[in-house]
């Protein structure tokens, strides 16, 4: 069951992509770590870092049990961060995080879908302002992603609308299809985890990318295409040290006047 990338005459279609683990070898932790290391004095980071690594073990266990709960709890780490400063640095964050983590085949597959006249849509539990920057790097497309609540110029740490996982991904895809008059039976979807099953089942042509054991079994049983895409530039993948270096040596980005004053 491979599906024809050429859409039927007069039928509008799209290709929906999960992001973390499907397009790039990342998690929601990588993006936050970049911001924390960028905005926090080094002496504070040295105290905070071992404690955070210990928490990552808890996050990993929680992810296997309840990913929605994990996302809701993890995003509390953003509480108090400046909205303006964080969003201004989004493009730099995405550029550095994704640099050595692209999955071979992902961008090429997107180009195939674009060539067939299909809309590219990122469907992800990662944050909207980061994913909008990623979409720009990928050549454009729509974004269905998580959004943080904002109050008085700061993030509250709470998700507006809840985590974008499982059935919520499917619901947003169907709403997007209705708004844009897209025929879901003519659409493709790509995911890497059994948590993506709902979004894959929502389209006519599902694809499993580097699937976990459960999704691989389902894909084999249902004759879905399975893509085993390696990571580009694997030799550069010392993740934590690379993120620390990038956060410490960011590309200069203009800050709003009020934020600039705080750093002086």
Task: Quickly describe the structure.
This protein has helices at residues 28-39, 42-65, 67-74, 83-88, 90-98, 106-115, 128-137, 166-179, 197-201, 213-222, 239-248, 257-262; strands spanning 14-17, 119-127, 142-146, 148-151, 154-159, 188-191, 205-209, 226-227. By secondary structure, it is an alpha/beta fold.
How does this model look, in words?
The protein is of the alpha/beta class. The protein has a single domain, classed as HAD superfamily/HAD-like (Rossmann fold). The strands form 2 sheets. A 6-stranded parallel sheet has the order 3-2-1-6-7-8. The protein is globular, with a radius of gyration of 19 Å. The C terminus is likely disordered.
Order of helices and strands: EHHHHHHEHEEEHEHEHEHH
Mean pLDDT: 87
From the alpha carbons, calculate the radius of gyration and give it in angstroms.
19 Å
Trace the largest sheet across and list its strands: 3-2-1-6-7-8
How would you name the CATH homologous superfamily? HAD superfamily/HAD-like
At CATH level 3, the topology is Rossmann fold
How many helix segments?
12
Please mark out the parts with pLDDT under 50 across 5 or more consecutive residues, or reply none: 242-264
Terminal Cα span: 59 Å
């Amino acid at each position: 069951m491979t599906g024809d990338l050429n859409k039927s005459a007069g039928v509008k279609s799209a290709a929906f992509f999960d992001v973390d683990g499907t397009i790039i070898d990342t998690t929601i932790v990588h993006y936050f770590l970049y911001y924390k290391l960028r905005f926090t004095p080094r002496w504070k980071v040295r105290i905070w870092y071992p404690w955070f690594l210990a928490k990552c073990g808890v996050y990993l266990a929680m992810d296997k049990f309840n990913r929605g709960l994990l996302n809701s709890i993890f995003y509390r780490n953003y509480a108090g961060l400046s909205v303006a400063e964080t969003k201004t640095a989004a493009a730099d964050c995405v550029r550095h995080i994704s640099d050595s983590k692209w999955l071979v085949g992902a961008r090429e597959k997107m180009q195939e879908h674009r060539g067939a006249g299909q809309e590219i849509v990122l469907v992800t539990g990662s944050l909207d302002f980061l994913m909008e920057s990623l979409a720009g790097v990928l050549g454009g497309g729509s974004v269905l992603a998580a959004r943080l609540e904002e109050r008085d110029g700061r993030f509250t740490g709470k998700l507006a609308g809840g985590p974008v996982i499982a059935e919520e991904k499917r619901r947003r895809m169907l709403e997007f299809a209705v708004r844009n008059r897209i025929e879901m039976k003519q659409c493709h979807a790509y995911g890497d985890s059994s948590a993506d099953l709902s979004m894959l089942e929502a389209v006519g042509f599902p694809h499993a990318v580097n699937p976990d054991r459960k999704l691989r079994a389902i894909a084999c049983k249902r004759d879905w295409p399975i893509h085993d895409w390696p990571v580009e530039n694997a030799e550069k993948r010392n993740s934590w040290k690379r993120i620390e270096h990038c956060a410490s040596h960011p590309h200069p980005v203009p800050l709003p006047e009020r934020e600039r004053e705080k750093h002086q």
